[in-house]
Amino acid sequence: MLKLIKENLYRQSKAVALLFTLLEEEFSRLTNRKPQSVTQIELIIQELMRQIAAERMSLKGLIRKIEPTAAKLGEIMPALDQNFRSELEALLREIDAMEQRCAVQATKNQQLAQALLDQSRSLLGFLHKEIQPKNENVYSARGRYENSTPQASLINGRL
What we know:
Distance between the termini: 104 Å
Number of helices: 3
Strand content: under 5%
Order of helices and strands: HHH
Helix content: over 70%
CATH architecture: Up-down Bundle
Number of strands: 0
Structural class: mainly alpha
């Protein structure tokens, strides 16, 4: 059972390292303005995140098999052999450090994507404003010149 826990943590550390690589690739594609490829890599990142979450749920199941009342790995660590515990702690430190790097990279990606969105929205607003007619004397939907001010007329009548 302990071997399965170690293997699970090892898979998690490799998955988080892959996640960091994918986040760097996403940043590269954002800077190169390749929106289609950014979408593709985003889907891959989401699937990897799902797999990491599944590994963590599996780890919780393994922990509960060892100690039914334990919910976290830290709760069973004191009962483990010193050598095995040090190996697990090293893996946990590695996972934590890589998660921190992933969080920083994800923040950079989000800020760049937001900046590109704001830039595109601003450019679109500018272009829309430029193509709008400046004055009110324009052609109507029927293709006739529409005069917005009515012609002067005399009203002749009795009260």
